[in-house]
Specification:
By secondary structure, the protein is mainly α. It contains eleven helices and three strands; from the N terminus they run αααααααααβββαα.
Length: about 230
């Protein structure tokens, strides 16, 4: 009897969900897994603070439509943006569907949660930098070896619009300058690979950078790095 009661506890399946299901079956990135873990942790706080319950008694059957609406209100009261609220609700839904696959009695709960509408997110108006200011920024690094590296970092980020983390993951083989339309091969979120085209001006800068930092043309080396000896000679 105790075993059945334990299996019905809402938080009884979180360990396998986070350590087995997400990384090995869904192949989620560590950042996504961390975000889902945070969402479940915050939901536990909501259960404790707002529902005055504990993980020892809160069951899947307690996770009703109204409970999750209250969770969204709880998140908003803590200053979370609409987008953050929606993402954390998505994490809870994913967990419920995982549990429902293991126990058919939970499917009605997961289905009810899927009907909760996401909060409307306001359209963000982002200010754009002027061409003159951007040109000044791209030419700001000094004409030194390190400066040329820093300039290439700025140029690549501007031209390709990739993330800084994606830029740091590039190696020499990620860059194809001889294609009809030159491109870089980027490994993005969720370990998904995509092709990003670059302009001829960026190609010229990369050629100069490769001659300076990668004269041996080792395809396995990180594209952006600074050898210690090279720094000592600057």
């Amino acid at each position: 009897m105790k075993k059945n009661e334990s299996s019905e506890l809402f938080f009884s399946k979180t360990f396998d969900f986070l350590t087995c299901y997400l990384p090995t079956q869904l192949h989620k990135s560590q950042n996504t897994i961390r975000s889902y873990r945070d969402a479940l942790t915050i939901f536990r706080r909501y259960v404790t603070e707002s529902l005055h319950s504990t993980i020892r008694v809160f069951r899947f059957s307690d996770c009703t439509y109204e409970t999750l609406l209250g969770f969204l209100e709880y998140l908003r009261s803590k200053g979370n943006s609409e987008a953050t609220c929606n993402y954390r609700l998505t994490a809870i839904r994913s967990y419920l569907w995982y549990a429902a696959d293991l126990d058919i009695s939970i499917q009605s709960i997961a289905l009810s949660a899927s009907h909760i509408p996401h909060l409307r997110t306001p359209k963000m108006t982002r200010e754009t930098i002027s061409k003159e200011d951007m040109a000044a920024l791209l030419t700001a690094p000094p004409s030194t070896k390190r400066g040329k590296r820093d300039q290439l970092i700025l140029i690549l980020l501007y031209d390709s619009a990739i993330r800084v983390s994606e830029l740091l993951d590039l190696d020499v083989r990620s860059v194809n300058l001889n294609a009809k339309i030159p491109y870089i091969r980027v490994l993005g979120k969720g370990e998904k690979e995509r092709i990003v085209s670059i302009t001829e001006k960026t190609v010229d800068h990369i050629h100069a950078y490769l001659k300076l930092y990668h004269p041996e043309n080792n395809p396995d080396q990180p594209l952006i790095y600074t050898p210690t000896l090279a720094l000592c000679n600057e």
